[in-house]
Write a structure and sequence with these properties.
Blueprint lengths: L1 E7 L5 E2 L15 E7 L26 H4 L9 H7 L8 E6 L5 H11 L4 E5 L4 H10 L7 E5 L3 H11 L3 E5 L16 H17 L3 E7 L11 H5 L2 E6 L6 E9 L7 E7 L2 E4 L3 H5 L9 E8 L2 E13 L7 E4 L3 H14 L7 E7 L10 H14 L7 E3 L2 E2 L5 E2 L4 H10 L4 E5 L8 E4 L4 H5 L2
Parallel strand pairs: 4-8, 4-9, 5-6, 5-7, 7-8, 15-16, 17-20, 20-21
Antiparallel strand pairs: 1-2, 1-3, 9-10, 10-11, 11-12, 13-14, 14-16, 18-19
Helix pairs in contact: 9-10
Length: about 450
Amino acid sequence: MSNTIFTCSKCDAQAIKWAGRCLECGAWGTLTEETTNKSQSTKKVQGPSSKASKDVVELTHLSISGSRAKKLPTGFAEFDKVLGGGITPGSLILLGGDPGVGKSTLALQIVNSFKDGVLYVSAEESTDQVSGRLSRLGKGQGGLRFLNEDHLETIIATIESEQPKLAVIDSIQTVYTEEITNAVGNLNQIKACTAKLLTLAKSGKTAIIIIGHVTKEGDLAGPKTMEHLVDTVLYLEGDKYKQYRLLRASKNRFGPTDEVAILEMVKEGLKAVVNPSKIFLAESHHQPGSVICAVAEGSQVFLVEVQALVAKTSNNYPKRSASGFDQRRLEMLATVLSKRAAINLSNFDIYLNIAGGLTLKEPALDLAVCASIISAYQDRVVPAKTVIFGEVGLAGEVRSVAKTKERVKESVKLGFNKIILPYFEGASAGLVKVKEVKEIIGLLN
C-alpha cells in the first residue's frame, strides 16, 4: 500500500495535501510530493512486550580511565586542539564551510597525516583529481586508500570490509541511499545518509568525517536535525579570496567548544598562524575610523583592526553595511550612539570592516566599533598605540568581558601604552576605564 505525503524542504514538516505555503515555517513553494510504501497495516499489540530486556550497568563500577576511548591525534596540532586532543574512535564529525573555503584541503591534510588505516571517499572528484591535489599540496600518498563512489550502501560495505581507523565522506550532499526516492542532495537524502553513517560509526571503531556545504544564510545545507545526529560540528570560516581561516566547533560531545584555530591558506595547504596579532596589524593604517581591538577566540587573544567609514547618505534611509561583523549588531550600536551619546547618524551611511577577512562575533568588539564610528564621524584620529575593547548595552553602559587580563597582557606585549576598557577593580598604568560609551568622545584627542 502506498501513501502520498508532502514534505517541506525547509523545515521538513509533513502534510497530507499540497499547499502553496508551509503551515509550520511559513515558507512559500517548499512542499514537495513524496510516496511512502506501507508493507503492512499497523496492528494493536496486546499483552506483555515480546522484546527481551538487557543488562543494566552501574557506572560507579566502571573504571573511568580504562573505559575512556583513547583519541587519535591527526598530526595537525590546531585541528586536534579544536577537537580537544584528537579524533574519538567511533565518532561522527561534520565539517562545514562555504564553497572554496578549504574543507577538502583540510580533510586531505588530516588523512595524509595517518600512516595507515584511512579511507577517503569522494563522490565529486576522481582518483586522478584527488591524487593531483595531494601532489600540489606536497603531501605523500602512502597508506591513503581512495574510493570514488556516491552510493551509500556501497560506501558502508567498503568501510565494513576495510575497517579503517578514519573515513572521510566528501561530501554528504553528493551521496544517496536507495531507501529514499528523492534526488541526490534532497533534505531527506541528507538526513537518511547521515543517520546510516552514524549507525555505522557507533557499531565499530571507525571515526567518520563528513563534509557539508554551507548555504548563503551561513547554515549547514540540510535541516538542523542533521547537526543533532552527529557528535561534532566544525565550521571552517573565512573569505575564499583571502588567506585566513577560522576553524571552530559549535558542538562537541567529546571535548570543548570554546577553542578556535586560526589558519592561513598557503600553497602547501592550511597552516597554523603562530602570531595572529602581528599579521592582522601588519597593514593597519593610523587614520580616522581605524581602531585596534583585543579579541579572544578560544584560548587565543590577538589584536585586530576595526575600520569604519561614515558618509552623508544620498538615500532616504541610511545604509548600514558590515564585513566580518554582524550587521544587526552594527545597526543596534549606531542607534545606541544616536540615543545615548548624542551622535546623530540618521543622515549618514555607515560602513564597517574587520581587517584581515575574519568574521568575529565577540561582544568585546562593541566598544571598538563605537569608537571607530565616532572617529570616522568626527574625522578625528584615535591616539596612536591605543587598544579599545568592551561590550556595549542598550543603555549605553560599557560592560566587562572575559579574559580582560589576557587582553591587556597581549596589548602591552605588542607595545600599546593606552588601553580603553570597561571599569573593573584594580589599577594599572596605561588603563583608561570607562562606564558609558559617551566617554569615548572625550578620549579621542
